[in-house]
Design goal:
This protein is mainly beta and about 575 residues long. The protein has one helix and 42 strands. The strands form ten sheets. Strands 26, 27, 28, 29, 31, 32, 33 and 34 form an eight-stranded antiparallel β-sheet that branches. The chain has a five-stranded antiparallel β-sheet with strand order 14-17-18-19-20, with no helix packed on it.
């Protein structure tokens, strides 16, 4: 079996019922390797995921372990797994030696905390970090490892600096305006922020500590989960409680472009082979600000101790070697064949045309008038060897369930209910054809016992031109909607021409405006950038345009960039350029 990773993660996401409608959510992931298995805990889930390879996950429900709380933290301390989660009131800390047993022992209730993180140093001492605010800092404190209670005074560790760190800016140049119902939700949210006098300040949150070669890497998220620029930055120091200084390469995890954006508030671990991985939150934020998904990215430390992630083509299918590997050598297994191709559909709601499942934007979708029996037929416009198809379902106007108040929780005043329905299923039939007349089955999930909104099919190079998917059963009998029917395989064209000329302008100290000429055979460009030619660790993917604003720069930092052209025939690495360091006058 091939070891394929394609973000967002192909796992069940729980339906959240609040604000008069429902949407799915999982966010703020903590990933841990414990006693030979991987465990993945996420906000508002009512359980957790477990795996033996980090690529294929199983769901384990646990409704007793603070299901209505955000940002669960799970870290190993001695032989125990320590669990904590966010609350403005009493905040408990638990421990277990076997998460699947559901036997969690309450250890302490030290004080209210939000976005907690527990870290055990090599000498056995334990430190606790917390903070999620746009006015207060992230704090740290030593804890007793046996009782998980404070063993020192708390310290203020890091705060937001949007005046010099572009990745922390909530109001960044070129930020798109919201449309439709998501715009109303966002406007109400930011009106409340303005009333409090904190609308332009970033949320500094999601602390996570990693140690490498004697250095401490305090990771944090900014500027807010609803932004495409949601990312993870990192400070380093010689002590677990600082002092800390910002790493020269920042943010170390970001994904501002592509099919799905956002890569903030996460966790960093070593797998069983010694490879580094970073899990984080990815953003949809259409039905609700907190409509989110999970992503997983290869990560590493370079020879200078710089923490980085490889997020080039991070929402394409990537083949992950078994054993130790170089994270920067992970590249797309196949290329996208479905971008802006044509399609026929059984029906469409107004404003949800067929083209919106082929535009590489998870925040738009095709939506049928009905549910079961509706179909979507993609025409690749010529016959291709197809190897991988990702099916991204969208939720449109799912009504809120009317359930007893005792089953709800007043989270952020949202009166939330998480639907645990074990019989909820997403079922469909996918067929292929070379001529649009004779059809063969690609995948038959009409009897599937799963509920996967980002499912995929590996097709082993079957040749096809047409791909048709028909809905059999959807949660709540909701309308059949696709935010992306993404087909990957081997194109017949040559690779795009190399981008060898770049016009760049440092339009403000934290922003660079880049333009280039279009490359023949390119459908998009992946702009890699960083602090040196050999440290182009950040990236920003665009489709159908030849310019980009890099808004996540540090004011006093010099940068280099390369524009890689990509198309159905592959990827052509661009020439590396130094970007201007002076602000435009």
């Amino acid at each position: 079996m091939q070891r394929i990773l394609c973000n967002p993660l192909n796992i069940p996401y729980q339906f959240q019922h609040y604000n008069k409608q429902a949407s799915r959510e999982a966010a703020d992931p903590t990933l841990v390797y414990f006693k030979g298995s991987y465990y993945l805990f996420a906000s508002m889930s009512g359980g957790f995921y477990y795996s033996d390879d980090m690529l294929h996950w199983q769901w384990h429900e646990n409704r007793s372990l603070t299901p209505f709380r955000y940002a669960p933290d799970v870290r190993q301390v001695n032989d125990w797994l320590i669990f904590s989660s966010s609350d403005r009131g009493p905040s408990e800390i638990y421990r277990t030696k076997d998460p699947l047993s559901d036997q969690f022992e309450k250890l302490s209730e030290p004080f209210p905390f939000w976005d907690p993180d527990t870290f055990q140093d090599d000498d056995g001492r334990v430190y606790f970090y917390w903070g999620c605010d746009n006015k207060k800092p992230i704090y740290g404190q030593e804890f007793d490892p046996e009782t998980m209670t404070p063993a020192s005074e708390r310290k203020e560790l890091i705060s937001g600096h949007p005046e010099k760190f572009g990745w922390e800016r909530p109001d960044y140049p070129g930020k798109p305006k919201e449309k439709g119902k998501e715009a109303l939700s966002m406007r109400l949210y930011h009106l409340a922020m303005k009333i409090s006098g904190s609308d332009s300040k970033p949320f500094i949150e999601g602390a996570f500590m990693t140690k490498h070669s004697g250095r401490y890497y305090l990771q944090y998220a900014a500027p807010g989960t609803e932004f495409a620029t949601y990312c993870d930055g990192v400070y380093t120091g010689d002590s677990p409680l600082g002092p800390f200084e910002a790493q020269t390469h920042n943010p170390f995890s970001s994904k501002p472009g592509g099919f799905i954006t956002g890569a903030g508030h996460g966790s960093t671990i070593e797998d069983q082979y010694g490879n580094l991985w970073h899990a984080s939150t990815m953003r949809i934020s259409v039905n609700a600000n907190f409509e989110r998904r999970l992503g997983l990215f290869p990560a590493g430390f370079d020879k200078d101790g710089i923490l980085f992630c490889n997020q080039n083509f991070a929402d394409y299918p990537l083949e992950i070697p078994e054993g130790k590997f170089d994270p920067m050598q992970i590249t797309p297994k196949w290329m996208l064949l479905s971008y802006q191709k044509s399609a026929e559909v059984s029906s469409s709601k107004e404003g949800h045309g067929a083209e919106l499942a082929l535009n590489e934007d998870i925040r738009t979708c095709w939506c049928a008038e009905g549910s079961a029996g509706e179909w979507y037929c993609l025409d690749l416009e010529e016959e291709y060897p197809v190897y991988f198809i990702q099916i991204n379902f969208a939720d449109v106007n799912v009504p809120m369930l009317d359930v007893d108040k005792s089953l709800r929780s007043n989270v952020y005043t949202s009166n939330r209910y998480i639907d645990p329905d074990p019989d909820m299923r997403t079922r469909w039939l996918m067929e292929g054809s070379t001529d649009g007349k004779t059809w063969f089955v690609i995948a038959d999930k009409r009897n599937a016992e799963t509920n996967l909104p980002h499912d995929y099919v590996e097709t082993d190079g079957m040749k096809m031109r047409y791909i048709r998917i028909t809905a059999e059963k959807l949660p709540y009998d909701e309308p059949f909607a696709l935010s992306g029917l993404r087909v990957f395989g081997t194109g017949y064209s040559e690779k795009p021409e190399k981008v060898t000329a770049l016009t760049s302008l440092r339009s403000d100290p934290m922003t660079a405006a880049l333009k280039w000429k279009s490359s023949e055979r390119a459908i998009g460009y992946n702009v890699r950038y960083g602090t040196a030619p050999d440290k182009l660790y950040s990236s920003h993917m665009v489709y159908g345009q030849t310019e980009v604003l890099l808004t996540m720069l540090a004011a006093d930092q010099e940068y280099c960039a390369a524009v890689d052209a990509f198309g159905e025939g592959g990827i052509t690495a661009g020439k590396v350029f130094r970007l201007p360091s002076m602000t435009a006058r």
